[in-house]
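Aim 2 progress update. The chain analyzed this quarter is reproduced below.
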Amino acid sequence: MILGDTERLAWLRLARTRNIGPVAFANLTARFGSATAALKEVPRMAQRGGAGNFILPPESEAERELAGLEKLGGRLIAACEPDFPSGLAALDPRPPLISAIGNIHLLQKNMIA
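Predicted structure tokens:
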């Protein structure tokens, strides 16, 4: 799957949310079907209690991070995308996102000599 701009921004915001790590990220996106839907539910879950102290980063902050990365010639790669490095995808839990700059195709190369 390749994320659209709106969902990529939602992935970044959810991944940057205080007290949401890779396990919670995976559970939330699996439960609600997308990061966009999970972002809508996190405040409700926190209000109900037992969901932790979540502080969602503002959309403008995530937009600035993406713009800054693009200005450097980089991009954000989500764990569900084909360019995500297989070595990182094998981790349990895997990081939801990585920032990459440079020859991104090298991320898939087998670096074992």
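The radius of gyration is 15 Å. The chain has a mean pLDDT of 89. These observations will guide the mutagenesis experiments scheduled for the next reporting period.
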